């Protein structure tokens, strides 16, 4: 620890602080030396060096007594607080380094936040009860922005080549289904439906910049069809409710469709083409994950691997 006072450079270490505090509490060179595992002469030399560095006497000593000076009393109060702060800092850093303390912030697509994350987070909480967890359920575009800004440790979202400055690692794929109101002509189909066959139906779609909307537009473009939804909504629950009420059909990824309770709705796979949304882990290229966040990612990978079996 180096401190400049009135042009004078003072260099003291935490060992110097600890040494001074031990002597200040015992006021006995023999006892203090024993606690510090030093000889009395070595302790006396160290205290003299500390006082020389400070330019003030901290202790008045005779052959029989040791007493704190006025400066020593002030130094003891401040040094004790510094010692506590230093030890707290070490404990805090050690806790973070061991993934046992701190906070993990995650951005995730609403469907993942509702269907996938709760199970993983529950297991993580049991293993790391002292780590605070924060989930930001948001659309794909904002999820990338949160990682870039450092507001979250990582994101679980759909791939997007527009965000090449961030690192994306695929974890799973998510196929699209068509949600159809019961009684709708398309509900009569027994098997998969082609995207082109649904073009004449009224579609309820996610708004931009949703990855669901992007994949839907891409699938129709493969059939040289420009996608123009009849209705748009931002939240899955709204889209599903509109389908239930007969507003139209909705193309959604399987995970998203399974994240919302449905009544009076028929699901059919979509083909021609088979649209599979890539879901992956987004992290900043220039920042390593804190140990607590890395532990959550490892648990997430393990969960997905077990689900894939």
Automatic annotation (TrEMBL):
It holds the Pfam family HTH_1. This is HTH-type transcriptional regulator GltC. InterPro entries: HTH-type_LysR_regulators, LysR_HTH_N, LysR_subst-bd, WH-like_DNA-bd_sf, WH_DNA-bd_sf. GO terms for molecular function: DNA binding; DNA-binding transcription factor activity. GO terms for cellular component: cytosol. The keyword Transcription applies. Keywords: DNA-binding, Transcription, Transcription regulation. It comes from the Bacteria. Residues 12-69 form the HTH lysR-type domain. The keyword DNA-binding applies. Belongs to the LysR transcriptional regulatory family.
């Amino acid at each position: 620890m180096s401190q400049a006072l009135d042009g004078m450079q003072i260099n003291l270490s935490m060992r110097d602080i600890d040494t001074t505090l031990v002597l200040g509490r015992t006021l006995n060179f023999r006892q203090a030396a024993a606690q510090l595992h030093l000889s009395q002469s070595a302790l006396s030399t160290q205290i003299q060096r500390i006082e020389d560095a400070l330019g003030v006497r901290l202790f008045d000593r005779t052959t029989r007594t040791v007493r704190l000076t006025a400066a020593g009393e002030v130094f003891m109060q401040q040094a004790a607080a510094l010692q506590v702060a230093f030890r707290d800092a070490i404990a805090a850093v050690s806790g973070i380094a061991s993934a046992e303390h701190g906070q993990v912030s995650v951005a995730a697509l609403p469907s993942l936040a509702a269907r996938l994350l709760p199970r993983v987070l529950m297991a993580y909480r049991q293993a790391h009860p002292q780590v605070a967890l924060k989930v930001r359920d948001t659309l794909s575009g904002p999820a990338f922005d949160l990682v870039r800004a450092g507001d979250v440790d990582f994101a679980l979202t759909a791939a997007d080549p527009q965000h090449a400055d961030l690192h994306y690692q695929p974890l799973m794929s998510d196929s699209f289904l068509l949600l159809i109101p019961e009684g709708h002509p398309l509900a009569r189909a027994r098997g998969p439906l082609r995207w082109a066959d649904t073009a004449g139906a009224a579609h309820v779609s996610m708004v931009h910049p949703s990855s669901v909307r992007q994949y839907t537009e891409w699938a129709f473009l493969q059939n040289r069809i420009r996608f123009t939804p009849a209705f748009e909504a931002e939240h899955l629950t709204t889209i599903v409710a509109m389908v239930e009420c007969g507003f139209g059909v909705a193309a959604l990824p399987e995970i998203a469709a399974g994240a919302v309770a449905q009544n009076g709705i028929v699901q059919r796979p979509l083909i021609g083409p088979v649209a599979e949304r890539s879901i992956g882990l987004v992290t900043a290229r220039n920042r390593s994950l804190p140990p607590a966040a890395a532990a959550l990612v490892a648990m997430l990978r393990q969960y997905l691997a077990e689900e894939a079996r």
